[in-house]
Amino acid sequence: PAEPFEWCLEQDLAVEWANKFPKGSEFRIVGGENDVDSDRLMKKWMTVCPTFIYGGQMKPPVGADERVMIHLEHQTTLTTVRCLCKIAFNYMALIQGSHFALSPSFDALRSFIRYDIGGAEGRAFIKHKPIIAQEIIRDERWTDGHVLTLEGRPKDGVVETQVALFNSIPYRIPMSRDYRGEWFAKGHHFHIENWTASELKVEIAGPNFDPTSIL
To answer: For 120, which of 81, 105, 145, 174 could close a Cys bridge (C-beta 3.0–4.6 Å)?
Structure first.
């Protein structure tokens, strides 16, 4: 039980694949939209592994609200952090221009991205809420596209980028912690099907902010 599952697609099922697992291994068939699909998958599996002992059917993990609970695992490696920082830096250069991006404030970040100098500690942080405000307010997913934002906050001395590839795990990436310029904020959504980019609307959530105004 402590070992991870190894996944195999239906079209890749073969006797050689099944034979590499020791006797007593556990197999699960995941997928299919109806009984016909389930029967087809089972028949194919039995030709691949004739000694398989059927243990019953699992109940679909769907609650009363029709939501499916999933277990999400992520691994933030050095390579992942450098990749995220590079995406964030390129976006900052696109929005603010090369003169801004070549500021000495970003020397350490450039050295990390280009030459792996300085280490990954404190470079990228996982957010606990989505980037798009409508998704936070309505608690529902609106897109599978990439989302990027950039904000300069002189009050905090921070230039920060947010990155959510495929609108999945959102990250905060502090680009600089000694910013002294003007406040600015930009955001873009990149559509993964038609390859278009659209600018996100920026709304300042002050003390009199009405969330329904952006829905």
So the answer is: 81
Q: Which of 203, 175, 209 is nearest to 96 (CA)?
A: 175
Asked if residue 73 lies in contact with residue 168, where contact means CB atoms within 8 angstroms, the answer is no
Can you give the C-alpha Rg of the chain in angstroms?
24
Greatest C-alpha distance within the chain:
70
Q: Are strands 125-126 and 184-190 parallel, antiparallel or unpaired?
A: unpaired
Q: From CA 18, how far away is CA 48, in angstroms rounded?
A: 7
Q: Please name the residues in contact with 193: beta carbons below 8 A apart, sequence gap of 6 or more.
A: none
What is the distance between the terminal CA atoms of the chain, rounded to a whole angstrom?
Answer: 45
Question: Given the structure tokens 């993990």, which residue do they identify?
Answer: 61
pLDDT, tens digit, 9 for 90 and up, residues 40-64: 888 888 888 888 888 777 766 666 6
Q: What are phi and psi of 164, to 5 degrees?
A: -135, 95
Asked if residue 166 lies in contact with residue 146, where contact means CB atoms within 8 angstroms, the answer is yes
